[in-house]
Structure formats: C-alpha cells, structure tokens
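Deliverable D2.4 — example input (structure tokens):
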C-alpha cells in the first residue's frame, strides 16, 4: 500500500552481476491503474461514512486500499451485445487469440454467428466480466487440444458453445 501513497519506497534489487542493492524510488509521479471485474458494485457511490466502509469491505475492498485510490470509475455490467463486440472487434479478443493458436498449428479456423452468440450468452451467465470470456476460451483450447495436434485441417465452431462442450465431453467419456 505504501507504493500508492506517493512517497519514497525502498526496493531491493538482486542482480547476478551487481549483487544485492537497495534502491530508493519515489512513487509520487507514478500513475497506478487498478482494474478488476467488480460488476456488482457499479451503481454505488462511496463516501467515508463507517456504514459505507463496511459495505466496501463486504464487497471485497479494504478501507486502507480504497482510501488510497484517488479517481474511481465504475463500469456497468456487460450485455450480450458488449461481449459480442469484444469478441469480434477487440484487439485483445480471446476469439482472435484462439484463431492465432489454430494458425500456429496450421489449422484453418472458422466459426459461426450462432457460436459467438452462445459464448456471449454464457459470459453473461458467468457474470465475471471480460475474464469470463477468457475463461471460456481457455476451456475451448483445452477441449480442442487433441484436434490442434491431429491431422485435421480445420477447427470449426459452428454450433452453440454448450453443444460443442457436450460433444467433446461425450467423446472423452467414451474414449473415442
């Protein structure tokens, strides 16, 4: 927490060439950006009454941390359309990352609008913010890891996410 206060802090540097050194660093000119997917606290306006601090602690904040944060921006919950937009248009889209993974294994990657809609719906159900999309695509990467390593030419995600997941679970369960 002392880093956020804008004062001199001591850092230990351990280098193979130069040995162990202590460096003093002033954080008063550093901008710290703290991010998180705390969708359920978007509509609350906090002040420093004891009642509000107790609700912040209940929501996962500590009064020490919250008091050190100067500017706070609250994000509304993501909608299905927001998730679709992130998947299709964002430079850091997990869909695009999955496509890059497929390309790395020389697989052609195709998907349908129905698949995108189902992933967006699943992300809304998870209620984890954008991290939910990342979790879904991490699971997809695991589900399709055998296909990525096989001789097939393409990965096609043309059906709803739940249908694809059930099919992959059934194949694994029967050892097909």
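Example output (designed residues):
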């Amino acid at each position: 927490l002392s880093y956020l206060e804008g004062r001199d802090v001591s850092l230990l540097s351990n280098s193979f060439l130069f040995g162990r050194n202590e460096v003093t660093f002033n954080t008063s000119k550093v901008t710290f950006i703290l991010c998180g997917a705390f969708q359920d606290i978007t509509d609350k306006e906090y002040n420093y009454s004891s009642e509000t601090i107790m609700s912040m602690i209940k929501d996962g904040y500590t009064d020490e941390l919250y008091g050190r944060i100067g500017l706070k921006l609250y994000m509304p919950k993501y909608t299905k359309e927001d998730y679709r937009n992130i998947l299709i248009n964002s430079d850091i889209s997990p869909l695009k990352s999955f496509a890059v993974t497929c390309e790395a294994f020389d697989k052609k990657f195709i998907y349908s609008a129905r698949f995108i809609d189902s992933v967006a719906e699943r992300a809304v159900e998870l209620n984890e913010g954008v991290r939910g999309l990342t979790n879904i695509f991490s699971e997809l990467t695991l589900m399709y890891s055998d296909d990525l390593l096989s001789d097939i030419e393409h990965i096609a995600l043309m059906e709803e996410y739940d249908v694809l997941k059930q099919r992959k679970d059934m194949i694994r369960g029967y050892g097909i």
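Residues 113-126 form the longest helix (14 residues).
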